[in-house]
Amino acid sequence: MPETPEPPATPSAAQPAVPAAEELLPSTRRALLHRLARAQSEGRTPSMVGAVVRDGATVWTSGRSMVEGHGPDGDTQYRIGSLTKSFVAVLVMRLRDEGLLDLVDPLELHLPGAAPGGATIAQLLAHTSGLAAETPGPWWERTSGELRPELADVLGAAPLKHPVGRVHHYSNPGFALLGALVERLRGKPWGEVLRAEVLEPLGMARTTLLPRAPHAGGWAVHPWADVMQPEPLHDTGRMAPAGQLWSTADDLCRWAVFLSAGDERVLSAASVAEMRTPAAAPAGADWDPGYGLGLQLLRRDGRLLAGHTGSMPGFLAALWVSVEDGVGALVLTNATSGPQVTAAAADLVAIVADNEPRFPVPWRPRSSAEPALLALTGPWYWGTNPFVLRLGAERDVELAALDERGRGARFRAEPDGTWTGLDGYYAGETLRVVRGDDGEVRHLDLGSFVFTREPYDAAADVPGGVDPDGWR
Fold first, then answer.
1. Which of 138, 264, 399, 455 is 20 to 30 A from 162 (CA-CA)?
2. What is the DSSP secondary-structure string of 261-275?
């Protein structure tokens, strides 16, 4: 593999990442190009490529370069750094969904001797394992993986820096362990598993462990002068699951679509949504509000973004999706530092989502509704707090507070006639209908909370009873 990176690649023909979609407005396209151009210019980077997906399709791709007429296109490879972690996390979630492991399992159960402190697989995915941020020297990102041939070389003599499960502490070695876990349970290198189980089904043929032309070269730009020098390029070996992958804008558009909606060939929408659910809250504000399972979470201007950033010597990357808006965006560049790719990619999402907001799904009436279920809809009271129960898709329901004092939630219908909370305070809790001997509904029970048709209904089983003299 060459030690000296090549100059930015010449554009090449590329197939569209995902099916064609309705074109963006000219004003939106210009705003996107202006934001990318500003990021490349202000960040003083040799080249930069950006792309946007909307509702499952690529709607914009463009590149900028230090060489006039030599900008990168959607088929130019860049190193994506820690975006690699999102791919490794998907491999782990696949193992979970197949029943080969549980996220609460200690890693030690599947990889003996590799998890100090008994950290669980979920804690490694969420960076709450307490492990060190980096390997013991030398700096793994700029040295050959041959210097760390075993997992013990990745962890060092004192790898725990915090009590297990107590704080969010980003750990690159933690994902090296997860890559080794995949290899142990699949019986083959994690890169081979990734290609067969994820990349090939999603059509991501240009995402690889080592660069393949056309690819950008990695550069370090002097902080105080407009000069630069090439960065070294090494196979990081055991540390590869933390940041080895190379990819293209076209391929990462596919990945953005997948992180928004899942793909049954790889991972269900429900499991991908689980990855996007906050599992840890970092101590600092830089990554506010938290980290899911292998995915960073960012709240920006009231919009919740999920994805990941990445950096390796000579490269920076960022990919964000807003599921609510149906928009995702990415930025790739070939400079060690300088370009603000995290903000740039988030801004690309905002430009499309704000300038061309998603149309609501048309209202349509239900084809049918069970009379007994329909009879449960309408006002309910928890004590004196008013709520309303609405009938959702199929037999699902939503309990919504009618003022700011109450906690609402969506509930999934279960075969036994109960419902399970999907979000908020009542996530995982059971909602059930309580009937009297005559079969009539007396109240709703939600995790021992009693909801009645009238505030403190004397005919219902209100805990503590109701004053016999009633309201006065």
1. 138
2. H-BTTTB-HHHHHHH
Q: Is the pLDDT of residue 284 over 70?
A: no
pTM over cut 0.85:
yes
Q: Which of 377, 392, 256, 389 is nearest to 321 (CA)?
A: 256
- Using CA of residue 134, residue 137, residue 139, residue 141, what is the dihedral sign? negative
pLDDT more than 90, % of the chain = 73
* Cβ-contact 462, 449 below 8 angstroms: no
What is the Cα–Cα distance from 181 to 108, expressed in whole angstroms? 10
Of 259, 257, 258, 289, nearest to 276 by C-alpha is 259
Stretch (H or E) spanning 48? strand 47-54
3-state secondary structure of 97: helix
Give CA separation, 381 vs 122, 371, 456, in Å. 38, 21, 8
Q: What is the C-alpha separation between 153 and 241, in angstroms, rounded?
A: 15
Distance of alpha carbon 64 from alpha carbon 326, whole angstroms:
26
Residue 239, CB-side half-sphere exposure with 13 Å CA sphere = 30
Residue 77 in contact with residue 212, Cβ under 8 Å?
yes
Token output for 289: 């509000």
| Helix residue spans in 68-170 (DSSP H) | 84-97, 107-110, 121-125, 151-155
Asked whether 238 and 150 are in contact (CB, 8 A), the reply is: yes
> Which residues neighbour 84 within 8 Å (Cβ) at sequence distance 6 or greater?
175, 240, 241, 242, 243, 244, 245, 310
